[in-house]
C-alpha cells in the first residue's frame, strides 16, 4: 500500500505536478530573471500594507484553489516583491543575481536534505568540507574546522560560545554561574549581533566592552588594551575580542595585526567578523585590508553578501584542529549519530552544530565557484571596488553631495545636502539640520 | 557606469544566464521530479566517501568551467545525492515532495530577500504574519506572536530565552551571573536540542532536570511535580517545562493538560516542542493528542517535517501579546530599523529575532496551503496515521518482526528478530542479543 503510491502527487497526478513546476519556473524566468533585472522596470511595485494585504488575499482557508489561481498567486507574490536582482536595488548588503548560484539553489531545494549525516547527504557533507577548506586557505590556514551557519549573527554567537568553552569547558555542563564574570571586546562600529549574541548566550550585554574607533571607524588597538585592563581591574575575565573586517555602515577594516598582538599578550580568543569584508580575501589587490586575519581563532564570512550567492550562506571558520566544535556543541544523540555505521562516522558532522536539521548552504557557492573560478570571483570583487571609486568621484563632482570620507571598501557614505544648507558648512547647527532630514546613506556600489 | 550594466550576467550575456537556468531546471525535472520519485529507480547511488570525492572532483580552482561542464556537475550532484522524495526513502522525519511547496521554494530563491523589514520584504512580512496567525489559531490562540526560526532546535532555544527573560528581564543586560540557579524540566524522551540549547544559552546542561516517562514514552506529571520540588529543595529556581508533542523515536505525546496544571501551580512557562507532532493539529480526528496545547506559553512546530514543506520551516508560536519577543531580542540597530520611515515600523519584524538577515520560510507553506486548503492538509495527516496503522498490522503478520508497541502516531517502532533468536523471547540474554545487532527502527510511514 505505502509502496505502490508515488509520494509526488498533485491530486494523484504526477504529470500535473511536473506541469505546475514548469509553469512556475516559466513565471520566474519572465518576471524575475527578465523583468526583475531590467533597468526599465521598477525595483518594486510599492503598496501600503493595508492595500497590499487586500491585493494578496493572504488568508488560508479550508478549500484548496485551482492551478490557475495558484499560478496567479505566484505572479502576485513576485509583482509586489522587491527585485533584489534589479540594477537599481541598493538597499542592504546583498543584491544581484548570479545565475550559477541560483541554479545551485534550485538543485538544493529540489533535493531537500539535511546536512547532518553522510548517509543522508553524502555529496553535501563532502562538498561543505571542501568549500570550507577553500575559504580557510584564503584566510591563510592549511588546516582547521568550520561549519555553515544560518547567518552571520549566529556565526558570531558560535565564536563566542567556542571561546568561552575553550577557556571554561565546565560551562557546557555547569553554566555561567560556575564562571567568573566574563568580558568581550569589540569596537563601537561592530555589528549589533555581538550584543544580541551576548544576551542570548547568557553573558548579558554588559559583558560587551566597547572599544573606541578612529575617524575611519577602525578599532583603536591602544584603547582595546586599555579596556582590557579596565575590565580586569573591575574583576572581569577577558576572553574574546571580536574585530570587524568591513563594518556595516562605514565599511571599515579593523587593524588585525595590532589587535592580534594585543590578543596574544593577554591570551584572548580573536574572532574576526568578516561577514561583509571576508570576500575581499579573493582579491590579490585588496586582500591586504585583512592582513593578520590568519592569526585569528575564528572568522565569520558571509558569501551571501558581497559574492551574491543568495541568502543564507554564512561560514564560521576555525583555526582549531582539536575538534573543539564537536566537543563544545556535541550531544551524541544516539538515534541520529549511531557509532556503529558502515562508514567513517566522523563524516556525520551534525553534532558540530546547535541545530539538528540544517539546510545545505554549500552547493550554490561551490557551483558558482566552479563556473567562475577563483579568478572570476576575484574580478568581481575588484570591479566592486572600482565601481565604489567611480561613485565617490562622481559624488565629488555633483552639487549638493558631500562625501563623508574616501571609501576604502565598497561602502560609499555621503550626504545629500538640501539647497537650504548648501554653502553653510561650519555654521553652528549645520550637522544637526543635515542629520535631521537626511540620514547618511551607505550604498553598495555593485 | 554602474547603472548601464545589468547585474545578471553570464560573461556579460543575460540570454546565456537564462539558458543555463532553463537547462538546470530541465535536469531537475528529469533527475529529481521524474526519476527521483520513481520506485523503479534507486533511493541513492551509494558510494564510499573516497570514491565519491573522486567522482565529484570537488576541488575549487582558479579557472572557471564551461557551461557543459557545469551542467554535468549538476547531474552528478543529483545522481549521488539521496532522493528524499523517493517512495522508499524512510530515513529521518522528512520526506516526500510537495510540488506546490517546491514551487514556493523556487520563487523564494529567485526573489532572494531577507525577512527583516517591510521595505525589503513587503509581501513576506505580511505573509509570515498571516501564516503564523493560522498556526496560532490551530493551537487555539486568537492572538499572540511568533517567528520562523532556522529549525526546531533554535525555536526551542528561543522559548528558553523568552522564559528566562520574562522572569528575569535583567538577564539580557547583566547575564546569568545576576540570577539564581535556574532549572528547566523535560522528559527523558525529549529531543536532544533541549540540552544543547541549555548549554548554548549559558544555563548549562545541569540545569535540565529529566522527568520520567511512562512505558509509552509520555512524561509522568507526578514525577514532574516531584522533580520541581527536588530542584527547589536544592536551591534552584524552576522557570520552564518543555513538554514534547511527538517524541523523536516513539512518537509519544506528553499529557499537556496535566502538565499545564503543574505549570500553573508553580508559575512555570510551558513550552511545547511540537516540532514533529504539531501538524496533527490539522486533523479533527487526531488533534486530541495535543489537548491542552492552548495552555502553553510557546509552541515549536516544524511544517518541514510531517507536512513535507521542505527544509527549513520551523515556527515558534507565542501566546504573549506584550511584545516579549522584541523586548527580549531587540537591539534597535539604527542603520536597519530607523524609526522615521514612511510606514508603520512595527512591520519591521527583524528585531524580534537574534538573526539579522533571515530567510523567507513562509511562502512555501502558504502556497501549499492555498493549493491544498486546510482540508487537503488534514487528509494527508489522516492518511499518514492510516499508513502507520497498516504497517503495524503488516508487521504483526510477518515472521521475524516484533512490534515494540502499538503506534499512537506515525512512528512505527519494531525489531527485526534474526532467525537465531526467534522463539527465544524471555531467555536471559534475548534483549541484549537483539539490541547488539539490530537497533529498533523508527520509521515514518508516509
UniProtKB/TrEMBL annotation, chains A, B:
Pfam family of the protein (one): Pyridoxal_deC
Tagged with keyword Heme: no
InterPro entries from the UniProt entry: PyrdxlP-dep_de-COase (IPR002129), PyrdxlP-dep_Trfase (IPR015424), PyrdxlP-dep_Trfase_major (IPR015421), Pyridoxal-P_BS (IPR021115)
Example GO biological process: carboxylic acid metabolic process
Keywords for this protein: Decarboxylase, Lyase, Pyridoxal phosphate
Residues that bear N6-(pyridoxal phosphate)lysine: 305
ATP-binding keyword on record: no
Entry GO MF terms: carboxy-lyase activity; pyridoxal phosphate binding
Required co-factors: pyridoxal 5'-phosphate
Family classification: Belongs to the group II decarboxylase family.
Subunit structure: Homodimer.
Listed name of the protein: Cysteine sulfinic acid decarboxylase
Source organism of this protein record: Sus scrofa
Amino acid at each position: 500500500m505505502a509502496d505502490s503510491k508515488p509520494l509526488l502527487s498533485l491530486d494523484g497526478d504526477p504529470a500535473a505536478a511536473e506541469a505546475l513546476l514548469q509553469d512556475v519556473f516559466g513565471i520566474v524566468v519572465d518576471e524575475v530573471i527578465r523583468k526583475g533585472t531590467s533597468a526599465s522596470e521598477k525595483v518594486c511595485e510599492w503598496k501600503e500594507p493595508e492595500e497590499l494585504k487586500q491585493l494578496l488575499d493572504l488568508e488560508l482557508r479550508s478549500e484548496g484553489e485551482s492551478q490557475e489561481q495558484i499560478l496567479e498567486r505566484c505572479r502576485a507574490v513576485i509583482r509586489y516583491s522587491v527585485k533584489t536582482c534589479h540594477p537599481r536595488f541598493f538597499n542592504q548588503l546583498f543584491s544581484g543575481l548570479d545565475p550559477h548560484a541560483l541554479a545551485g539553489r534550485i538543485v538544493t531545494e529540489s533535493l531537500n536534505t539535511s546536512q547532518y549525516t553522510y548517509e543522508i547527504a553524502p555529496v553535501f557533507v563532502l562538498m561543505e568540507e571542501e568549500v570550507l577548506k577553500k575559504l580557510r586557505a584564503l584566510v591563510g590556514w592549511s588546516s582547521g574546522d568550520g561549519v555553515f551557519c544560518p547567518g552571520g549573527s549566529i556565526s558570531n554567537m558560535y565564536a563566542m560560545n567556542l571561546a568561552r568553552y575553550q577557556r571554561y569547558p565546565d560551562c557546557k555542563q555547569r553554566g555561567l554561574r560556575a564562571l567568573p564574570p566574563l568580558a568581550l571586546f569589540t569596537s563601537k562600529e561592530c555589528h549589533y549581533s555581538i550584543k544580541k549574541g551576548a544576551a542570548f548566550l547568557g553573558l548579558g550585554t554588559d559583558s560587551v566592552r566597547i572599544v573606541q574607533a578612529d575617524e575611519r571607524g577602525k578599532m583603536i588597538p591602544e584603547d582595546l588594551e586599555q579596556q582590557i585592563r579596565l575590565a580586569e581591574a573591575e574583576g572581569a575575565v577577558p576572553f574574546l575580542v571580536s574585530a570587524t573586517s568591513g563594518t556595516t555602515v562605514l565599511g571599515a577594516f579593523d587593524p588585525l595585526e595590532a589587535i592580534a598582538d594585543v590578543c596574544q599578550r593577554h591570551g584572548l580568543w580573536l574572532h574576526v567578523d568578516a561577514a561583509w569584508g571576508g570576500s575581499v580575501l579573493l582579491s590579490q589587490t585588496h586582500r591586504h585590508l585583512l592582513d593578520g586575519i590568519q592569526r585569528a581563532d575564528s572568522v565569520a564570512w558571509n558569501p551571501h553578501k558581497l559574492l551574491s550567492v543568495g541568502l543564507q550562506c554564512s561560514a564560521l571558520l576555525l583555526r582549531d584542529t582539536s575538534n573543539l566544535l564537536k566537543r563544545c556543541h556535541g550531544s551524541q544523540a544516539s538515534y541520529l549519530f549511531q557509532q556503529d555505521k558502515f562508514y567513517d562516522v566522523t563524516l556525520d558532522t551534525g553534532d558540530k552544530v546547535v541545530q539538528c536539521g540544517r539546510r545545505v548552504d554549500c552547493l550554490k557557492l561551490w557551483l558558482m565557484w566552479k563556473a567562475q573560478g577563483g579568478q572570476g570571483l576575484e574580478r568581481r570583487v575588484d570591479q566592486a571596488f572600482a565601481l565604489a571609486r567611480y561613485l565617490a568621484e562622481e559624488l565629488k563632482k555633483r552639487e549638493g553631495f558631500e562625501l563623508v570620507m574616501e571609501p576604502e571598501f565598497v561602502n560609499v557614505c555621503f550626504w545629500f545636502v538640501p539647497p537650504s544648507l548648501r554653502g553653510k558648512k561650519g555654521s553652528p547647527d549645520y550637522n544637526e539640520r543635515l542629520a535631521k532630514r537626511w540620514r547618511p546613506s551607505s550604498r553598495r556600489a555593485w
